[in-house]
Design brief:
Distance between the termini: 29 Å
Radius of gyration: 20 Å
Order of helices and strands: HHHHHHHHHH
Helix content: over 70%
Strand content: under 5%
Shape: elongated
Largest sheet: none
Oligomer: single chain
Number of helices: 10
Number of strands: 0
C-alpha cells in the first residue's frame, strides 16, 4: 500500500514539474514544435535524451525562459522528449543558482582561468547591483564561469542520461517479468499500462 502511494506521489510531483503540451503551445517560439507528436512520446531513446538536454541547457544557460526555449529547440535534432527537457531546466532555480555559479567559478579557476572568489563572495553577501555583477563578470571571471558551467552541465547531462536509461531498462525488465509470471500477452498488457515495451 505504501509503495503504491509513494509511486502515485512521485508521479503527481513529476506531472506538476513537467509542463503540459498546452502550456508549451503558449510559448510563441515553441508553438510549432508542440504540434509534433514524436517530441512528446515517452520512449527508451527520447526520455534519456530529454533529461540530458534539459540538464545541459538548464545549468549552462541559467536564464529563465531561455532555458525552456533552448531545451525545446535542442530536442528537435536530437529527438528528445520536450516536456521532460523543459521540466529538467527547473533544476537551476533561485535556490540552486548561487551554488551552481560558485561551483562553476571554482572549477573554472581550478582549470586555469582567473576568477577572484573573495570578490564573488563579497558581492553576493552585500547584494551587489546587476551593473556591478556585469562589470565583474566581463572583467576577469567570464572565462572561468563559462568553462565551469560547461563542465558541470556536461557532467550532469551524462549522469542524467545514464541514470534515466538504467531506470527505463529496469522498468521494462520488471514489466516483462510481470507479463511472464501472469501469462499476459504483450498486446494485452500494452493496452492496460500505456505501452511500455522494450522496443521503445
Amino acid at each position: 500500500m505504501t509503495g503504491t502511494r509513494s509511486k502515485t506521489a512521485l508521479a503527481d510531483w513529476i506531472k506538476r514539474q513537467v509542463p503540459s503540451r498546452e502550456q508549451l503551445e503558449e510559448i510563441r517560439l515553441i508553438r510549432p514544435l508542440a504540434r509534433r507528436a514524436e517530441l512528446f512520446r515517452l520512449t527508451r531513446r527520447s526520455v534519456p535524451r530529454g533529461v540530458a538536454i534539459g540538464l545541459l541547457v538548464g545549468i549552462f544557460a541559467l536564464i529563465p525562459g531561455v532555458q525552456i526555449v533552448g531545451a525545446a529547440l535542442m530536442c528537435v535534432p536530437f529527438r528528445g522528449n520536450i516536456p521532460l527537457a523543459a521540466g529538467m531546466t527547473f533544476l537551476s532555480n533561485p535556490a540552486t543558482t548561487p551554488l551552481i555559479l560558485a561551483a562553476s567559478l571554482y572549477i573554472g579557476s581550478w582549470l586555469g582561468f582567473h576568477a577572484d572568489m573573495a570578490t564573488f563572495m563579497g558581492m553576493y553577501e552585500h547584494g551587489a547591483s546587476m551593473g556591478a555583477w556585469t562589470k565583474w563578470l566581463l572583467s576577469d571571471a567570464a572565462p572561468a564561469l563559462m568553462l565551469g558551467l560547461f563542465v558541470i552541465a556536461s557532467v550532469a547531462a551524462v549522469i542524467g542520461y545514464v541514470i534515466t536509461s538504467f531506470i527505463w531498462r529496469n522498468m521494462v525488465a520488471r514489466k516483462r517479468r510481470y507479463r511472464l509470471a501472469n501469462g499476459i500477452a504483450p498486446a494485452e498488457m500494452d493496452g492496460e499500462s500505456g505501452g511500455l515495451t522494450p522496443a521503445e
